[in-house]
């Protein structure tokens, strides 16, 4: 139910972006959108963590092994997804690929704000919710295999474009394995953020410079 609740929050800040900020303050719409996303995240995570007494122990969550595994996962996901599987998915789903390109164009309009949202805010929110809360909680009651499958599937559904959904399913599975191995949300956030940064600078930023 909490995961579904976050879906609702996503719809809320998307509605604000499209129907409110773009009309009342078009020149500041992207900034207002990032601020509203950050506030929605902070409020939702505050409720979630207080309700279930969740704690993110930063010091114990950081280890040499965790850092190395996070870096390895980030690089592996980039080559597996961006360089290998995504082109295949794009060829199979041309309509979704077109919408994905539209998303990239939208990100290029405000690269600094897009970087904050995609490479910082999204990894923090999604890893705490999907790995720290959902995968960690389901593992206790349903076992690690079931928890891994369910959390990966729901993580994929957070990415509404079909190409991104297929990639996110694999990404969620890898991040889930990382969480099971390290028992550290920090490692998952680092891996997720690292992968998003590599993808961002090799697609959004690089193609923007080429243009």
List keywords for this structure.
single chain; 211 residues; mainly alpha; 9 helices; 89% helix; globular
Structural description of this entry:
The chain is mostly helical and 211 residues long. The protein folds into two domains: 54 residues; 148 residues, no CATH class. The protein has nine helices and no strands. Helix 4 crosses helix 9 and helix 8 packs antiparallel against helix 9. The longest helix has 32 residues. The relative contact order is 0.14. The mean pLDDT is 90.
Distance, first to last CA:
44 Å
**Structure summary, number of beta strands:** 0
Mean pLDDT: 90
This entry's quaternary arrangement is: single chain
How many structural domains can be distinguished in the coordinates? Answer: 2
Structural class: mainly alpha
The rough form would be described as: globular
Order of helices and strands: HHHHHHHHH
Largest sheet: none
DSSP helical segment count: 9
Provide the gyration radius in Å.
17 Å
Task: Give start-end ranges of low-pLDDT stretches.
Answer: none
Residues in helix, %: over 70%
Beta-strand percent range: under 5%
Give a brief description.
The protein is mainly α and 211 residues long. The chain has helices at 2-24, 29-51, 58-61, 64-92, 94-108, 111-142, 144-157, 162-182, 185-210. It folds into two domains: 1-54; 63-210, no CATH class.
Tell me the layout of helices and strands.
Layout (H helix, E strand, L loop, with lengths): L1 H23 L4 H23 L6 H4 L2 H29 L1 H15 L2 H32 L1 H14 L4 H21 L2 H26 L1
Helix pairs in contact: 1-2, 2-6, 4-5, 4-8, 4-9, 5-9, 6-7, 6-8, 6-9, 7-8, 8-9
């Amino acid at each position: 139910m909490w995961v579904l609740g976050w879906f609702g929050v996503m719809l809320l800040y998307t509605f604000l972006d499209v129907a409110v900020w773009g009309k009342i303050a078009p020149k500041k719409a992207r900034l207002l959108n990032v601020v509203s996303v950050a506030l929605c995240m902070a409020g939702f995570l505050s409720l979630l963590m207080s309700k279930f007494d969740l704690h993110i122990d930063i010091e114990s969550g950081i280890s040499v092994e965790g850092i190395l595994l996070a870096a390895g996962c980030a690089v592996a996901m980039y080559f597996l997804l961006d360089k290998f599987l995504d082109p295949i998915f794009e060829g199979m789903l041309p309509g979704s690929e077109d919408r994905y390109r539209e998303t990239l164009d939208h990100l290029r309009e405000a690269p600094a704000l897009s970087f904050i949202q995609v490479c910082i805010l999204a990894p923090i929110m999604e890893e705490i919710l999907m790995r720290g809360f959902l995968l960690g909680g389901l593992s206790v009651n349903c076992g690690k295999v079931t928890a891994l499958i369910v959390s990966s599937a729901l993580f994929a559904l957070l990415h509404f474009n079909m190409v991104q959904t297929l990639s996110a399913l694999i990404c969620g599975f890898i991040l889930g394995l990382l969480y099971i191995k390290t028992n550290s949300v920090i490692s998952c956030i680092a891996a997720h953020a690292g992968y998003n940064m590599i993808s961002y600078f090799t697609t959004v930023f690089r193609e923007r410079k080429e243009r």
